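Lecture notes, part 5. Sequence design as translation. It can be helpful to think of inverse folding as translation between two languages: the language of shapes and the language of residues. The source text, in structure tokens, appears below.
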């Protein structure tokens, strides 16, 4: 299922969401100018490598050596399909979450759920030496926040049915729960040793974190008498 737009109009311009999308693309365009060896080194150095994280943690490494990849991995992508898919989801769902939280809180929320998603991946794959990159953990947090905030919204979705593709307006709660169930199913399968390039547990961790944090970080309502 590919989301195209929702039916909730933002009250304010989502400047921070636009900025996040822009930064992701700018970083990706820089990646395109690198050779494969340079790109692999970039992913290994600035992506989150679970085995390296745990090794540094046990070795008592400085906090910045541990923390930096948890920020930088969110802005790296492995190809056009990777970044376009992530940015489409962020475009469709991020503006309304920013509308609820406000610009600065939304940025903090995005970074925190992205970090939590990466931590979930490390805990689920402690021996992995493969770096994880991409904004999907943070975007999963945005989806979790959207589910809690706008369950009655509807999402215009491109839906493939056998050899045909059709447009269907799906309730957001159905779209997002279905998406989450797929992540859980694949995440459980990955624990059985199935090799998979997708960081399913980053999606699961980010989504659950987003559901809880959106309420904690939402500004208190202003009551008018």
């Amino acid at each position: 299922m590919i989301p195209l737009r929702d039916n909730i109009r933002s009250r304010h311009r989502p400047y921070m969401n636009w900025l996040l999308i822009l930064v992701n693309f700018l970083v990706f365009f820089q990646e395109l100018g690198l050779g494969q060896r340079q790109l692999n080194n970039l992913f290994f150095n600035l992506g989150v490598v679970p085995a390296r994280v745990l090794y540094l943690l046990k070795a008592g490494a400085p906090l910045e050596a541990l923390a930096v990849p948890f920020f930088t991995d969110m802005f790296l992508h492995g190809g056009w399909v990777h970044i376009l898919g992530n940015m489409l989801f962020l475009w469709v769902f991020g503006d309304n979450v920013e509308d609820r939280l406000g610009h600065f809180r939304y940025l903090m929320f995005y970074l925190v759920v992205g970090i939590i998603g990466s931590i979930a991946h490390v805990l689920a794959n402690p021996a992995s030496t493969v770096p994880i990159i991409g904004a999907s953990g943070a975007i999963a947090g945005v989806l979790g926040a959207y589910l809690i905030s706008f369950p009655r919204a509807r999402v215009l979705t491109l839906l493939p049915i056998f050899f045909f593709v059709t447009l269907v307006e799906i309730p957001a709660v159905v779209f997002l729960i279905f998406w989450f169930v797929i992540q859980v199913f694949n995440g459980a399968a990955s624990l059985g040793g199935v090799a998979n390039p997708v960081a399913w547990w980053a999606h699961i961790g980010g989504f659950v974190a987003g559901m809880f944090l959106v309420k904690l970080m939402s500004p208190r309502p202003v009551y008018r008498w």
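The translated text above is only one of many valid answers, since several sequences can fold into similar shapes. The mean pLDDT is 90.
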